[in-house]
């Protein structure tokens, strides 16, 4: 019983620290011009991060008890990924980010986004080439709608050179 009480207290303190960090981020963001969604100021992003941290700090103590989660995991008996699979995942994510940077500069937003999502998805052993390509196509379309048309991001969709 005392270990459950300790875990709950630890989660409560951890959530409070994260929420307080979010509050400080919001206070600091308010010293800058925040702007609005269509024309974001320098304080907009820190304000949103602060709000996210406060929400996360509230949710942390509400998470299930770790002992209950261990019992559920034991009941499901899912195999843990091997070290090789974990390294593959990290390498694919890093390669996807590098591809986005390079392809974004030379080919534009759409090819860069597709390459990023496809490469990162291939880091998960449960994805096939087909499922990774479908995921990448869907995320590329979503990114085009949100960032290019919705937010009018100044990033060309296609470019050569």
TrEMBL record:
Q: Which UniProt keywords apply?
A: Membrane, Transmembrane, Transmembrane helix
* Entries under Pfam families matching the protein: TctB (PF07331)
Q: InterPro entries per the record?
A: DUF1468
Please list the residue ranges annotated as the DUF1468 domain: 13-156
Q: Which domain of life is it from?
A: Bacteria
Q: Which residues cross the membrane?
A: 12-32, 44-62, 91-120, 132-151
What name does this protein carry?
Tripartite tricarboxylate transporter TctB family protein
